[in-house]
Write a structure and sequence with these properties.
This protein has a domain of 83 residues: Alpha-Beta Plaits (2-Layer Sandwich), CATH 3.30.70.120. The strands form four sheets. A four-stranded antiparallel sheet has the order 1-4-10-7. Strands 2-3 form a two-stranded antiparallel ribbon. It contains two helices and ten strands. The radius of gyration is 16 Å and the shape is globular. The chain has 119 residues and is mostly beta strands.
Length: 119
């Protein structure tokens, strides 16, 4: 199960500008200005989409869509709907730690692109 949360971000956001009209994503420079929104997507480390880690698919898609930024955070412990504890403790290694994919951009851009990929 995935959970999505929106909140106001205390960061500036803007649109991507390409240097020298290059189509290479490495050449994109973000112009940061104004107030943005933070989109949080709560998933598990073991969540996959077409044999790829879901967090990787989400980050690459957000980059492709020109979002201002995306970060994946790994939790050291947590539980979800089933109330099963997932932990990174050495004696009890979990293969499904909680992850949060955070995406920052304008509210309009985030809400128009917040559809998760089809499973």
């Amino acid at each position: 199960m995935w959970l999505i949360q929106y909140s106001t971000a205390l960061v500036g956001v803007g649109s991507a500008a390409s240097s020298a009209n290059s189509s290479n994503p490495k050449d994109l420079v973000m112009k940061l200005e104004g107030e943005g929104k933070l989109l949080r997507i709560f998933i598990g480390e073991a969540d996959m989409l077409k044999h790829k880690a879901l967090y990787e698919v989400l980050v690459l898609k957000e980059r492709e869509m020109g979002m201002a930024g995306a970060t994946v955070l790994r939790g050291i412990e947590g539980f979800g709907a089933g109330s099963r504890i997932h932990t990174a403790k050495i004696l009890r290694l979990s293969e499904d730690l909680p992850l949060i994919v955070e995406v920052v951009d304008t509210k309009r851009k985030l809400t128009s692109s917040s559809r998760l990929p089809a499973r």
